[in-house]
Specification:
Radius of gyration: 21 Å
Helix content: 25-40%
Number of helices: 13
Largest sheet: 10 strands, mixed
Oligomer: single chain
Strand content: 15-25%
Structural class: alpha/beta
Number of strands: 14
Strand order of the largest sheet: 3-4-5-6-9-10-11-12-13-14
Bound molecules: S-adenosyl-L-homocysteine
Amino acid sequence: MKIDIFGLTIEALTEALASKGLKKFRAKQVFQWLYQKSVFDFAAMHNLSKADIALLEEHFTVLPRQITILREQNSSDGMTSKLLLGLPDGNSVETVLMHHDYGYSVCVSSQVGCDMHCAFCASGLKGAVRNLTAPEIIAQVYLFNERLRQRAVEAQQSKPEMVSRVVVMGSGEPMLNFDAVLGALDFLHREDTCFMSYRNMTISTCGIIPGIKRLEEQGKPINLAVSLHAVRSDLRTSLMPVNKGFPFVDVIAAAEAYSQAGGRQVTYEYILLKDKNDSVQDAELLSNYLRYKHASVNLIPANPVPEQGFERPSKAAIERFVKVLAKNRINATVRKEMGKDIDAACGQLRAKFAKEQEQK
Ligand code: SAH
């Protein structure tokens, strides 16, 4: 059995390579190829000797090369790319690259499927299959780094750009896979990998309070996003069953404590669903809960998930909602949608592919 070295720390990599007779300085070179140059083929690591390349090929694998790209889609405006990744065990997850004016950000998945069963979301239609490992989360970022490097070569740019932001907002509930998610973020933060600031990382949760507390204990300036979506208990429970175990009022309190401890502003995500949570009263209630909090609201006009029968409010209804928040001095933005034409938008990941497979 070959050993997969992707995601190992330099110390662990050194040990793994040494066990097959490779010198210490080789580990350092391999580490640089993998995480600074996003090169995953041993044969392309041209400062290694032929003999060492052969040894590496005989004994080791690199996860990004074990992952198959089942599908690649690029939005018509060229700003969003989505990959459907086939993992070595046959499961698949999606990951999305977004090009913003401030750089590239990747929306990573944390689980195959999801157990939260939010009514409007397509990720959890089938429940959670398993947690992703830290290397599987890191690989989502590095597969895009590899593409950015290839693009730079084609465009004859000297220095390729790398992904500079990560949002853990793909399929899955990150707080239920805490160790792997934090392990991946810590790895990307390292100076000898992506050197990504924690301030450029965001974890989005549906409101798993113990996870928010654990994140607070970490003492890292990672951004917290909370998927709120409703501020009436009965409605939120019907949309998000997690509200039964962790009522949203307690979630807001935990998020506020997180923000107070680390000084980071919390983002509350609020999907606007036509005639469900988009009234003036809802906007007033939301304002009441968030007033004087170190918080902002990200309004997400619902992306249609046909299975669920939810609709997006009219433009006028969205504007009305925003106006109420503005009047109450709640900082709110309407999410710029990216990748809608390729179903990369929130809540639409993977489901379509699963459906297509079923029909085959
Ligand atoms: N489990 C985490 C992260 C994944 S969901 C969480 O709940 O935050 C990422 C975001 O996409 C959440 O805010 C989620 O509620 C939102 N989302 C899910 N389905 C959507 C849909 N159909 N339209 C718009 N946003 C959706």
